[in-house]
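ok new one. same drill as before - structure tokens go in, u give me an amino acid for every spot. 358 of them this time. try not to just spam alanines like last time pls lmao
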């Protein structure tokens, strides 16, 4: 089995691709796997670090002025030509794209060479690259039902995010949990706004978190490079723990409430683990897709949604108390979240890959 995966730009595209690669390694004894991604984005570091062969291309988005768009178009055509050469030499059984501007030219090249192609869309609003590549894709995997209205229904399946499958495979790490200063007999609120954190949300958290009921322990993940400044602003409280980064899945079993963004990876993880959530979607992403991701969770009563423009300490504390003071509500939120999860996403996608390969 030769599988070519193309992905890039953000963790929301890269981590699901890596999750599928890990599942493929477990499934196929004869697996040969190669990644293609941008030469100047995070995939160029993350994928080789994970131990996979990586071939770089250079593309950029059509997001600025006319001159930049012309340059991006030229880069895409050059990347398509390079991708055709790579595919001819490597002869994959299937090519699957997980989004990012680098995906489109590779999917186009594979289609031109009559290699089966698949794309995976993680968000509730399809990215530009996947919308473009969908015309050349033989199969389209989505994570939100609303995307049946975006893509051709005859070749689209709602199978979910492979990151959900890998999330379930991570066991609780008790030693790591205690190393963070946490206790199993005290309710835990996890606050995390992504690997880099959010300056605006961090400032508000410094105001809001000290006022939260001291019966709860709070793990505030403030993002890389922010810990010193955040700790200057926060009073020293035994129930308040501040870190730059946390291996989230290793402690999720003990999390009673998560306050988070609504990226594709986060949404997949909280639905499959059934973690009650207060979601503050980032307003700084393409097509405001985090808002729509969060809206699905909120509409199914799996989470509370607070837009960043409406966020303040009073509103946040009210939502926290509403959830934490009501064990029945938390149980309902957990059940609702799990109904939205796709724990078998990786297996179901690989099953479809086998169908297409045959």
């Amino acid at each position: 089995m030769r599988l070519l995966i193309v992905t890039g730009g953000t963790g929301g595209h890269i981590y699901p691709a890596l999750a599928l690669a890990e599942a493929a390694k477990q499934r196929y004894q004869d697996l040969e796997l190669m990644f293609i991604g941008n030469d100047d984005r995070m995939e160029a570091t993350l994928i080789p670090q994970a131990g996979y062969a990586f071939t770089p291309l250079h593309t950029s988005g059509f997001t600025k002025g006319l001159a930049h768009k012309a340059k991006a178009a030229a880069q895409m055509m050059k990347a398509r030509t390079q991708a055709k050469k790579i595919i001819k030499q490597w002869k994959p059984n299937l090519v699957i794209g997980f989004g990012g501007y680098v995906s489109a030219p590779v999917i186009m090249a594979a289609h031109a060479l009559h290699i089966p192609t698949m794309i995976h869309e993680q968000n509730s609003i399809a990215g530009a690259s996947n919308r473009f590549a969908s015309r050349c894709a033989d199969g389209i995997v989505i994570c939100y039902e609303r995307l049946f209205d975006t893509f051709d229904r005859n070749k689209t399946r709602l199978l979910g995010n492979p990151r959900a499958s890998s999330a379930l495979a991570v066991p609780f790490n008790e030693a790591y949990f205690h190393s963070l200063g946490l206790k199993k007999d005290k309710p835990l609120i996890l606050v995390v706004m992504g690997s880099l954190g959010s300056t605006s949300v961090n400032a508000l958290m410094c105001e809001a978190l000290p006022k939260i009921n001291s019966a709860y322990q709070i793990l505030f993940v403030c993002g890389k490079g922010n810990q010193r400044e955040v700790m200057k602003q926060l009073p020293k409280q035994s129930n308040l723990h501040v870190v730059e980064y946390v291996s989230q899945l290793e402690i999720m079993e003990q999390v009673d409430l998560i306050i988070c963004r609504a990226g594709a990876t986060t949404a997949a993880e909280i639905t499959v683990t059934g973690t009650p959530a207060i979601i503050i979607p980032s307003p700084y992403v393409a097509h405001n897709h985090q808002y729509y991701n969060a809206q699905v969770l909120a509409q199914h009563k799996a989470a509370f949604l607070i837009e960043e423009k409406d966020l303040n300490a009073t509103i946040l504390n009210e939502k926290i108390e509403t959830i934490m003071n009501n064990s029945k509500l938390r149980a309902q939120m957990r059940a609702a979240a799990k109904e939205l999860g796709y724990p078998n996403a990786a297996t179901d996608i690989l099953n479809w890959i086998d169908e297409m390969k045959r």
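The longest strand covers residues 32-38. and btw The chain has a mean pLDDT of 93.
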